[in-house]
Structure formats: C-alpha cells, structure tokens
Amino acid sequence: MLKEKAGETAGKIWNALNETEGLTAKQIKKATKLVDKDLFLGLGWLLREEKISTQEVEGELFVKLV
Prior knowledge:
By secondary structure, this protein is an alpha+beta fold. It has helices at 2-17, 25-32, 36-48, and strands at 23-24, 52-57, 60-65. It contains 3 helices and 3 strands; from the N terminus they run αβααββ. The longest helix is centred in the first third of the chain and has 16 residues, at 2-17. The chain starts with a helix and ends with a strand. It comes from Bacteroides oleiciplenus YIT 12058.
C-alpha cells in the first residue's frame, strides 16, 4: 500500500515539475496539496529513480527534473 502511494505521490510531483525550471519544496507542496510526509515520500521515490535533482538555494530545498 505504501509503495503504491509513493508512486502516485511521485507522479503528482513530477507533473508539477514537468513544465518548470524547478520549484521549491514549498511551491511543490502548494501545487500538489501534499502534506510534508507525503511530499518527502514522493521526493524520495523520484530521487531513487534518478528523475530529479535537489539542491539548497537560499536555505530552501529546490527540486528540478533531470
């Protein structure tokens, strides 16, 4: 069940990032309406699959598709 949820959440995040140069975690959270734990579950999935890159920009997590 958790694996399925992680995949669905990753899809929401990927869609939010798809036509952007990247977003902060706050922007992704707002666009997807995810709570923190689900946001990070989806980000972890995408990182493991090497679909995103992350960096810290001005103290915030910045995420973009690779």
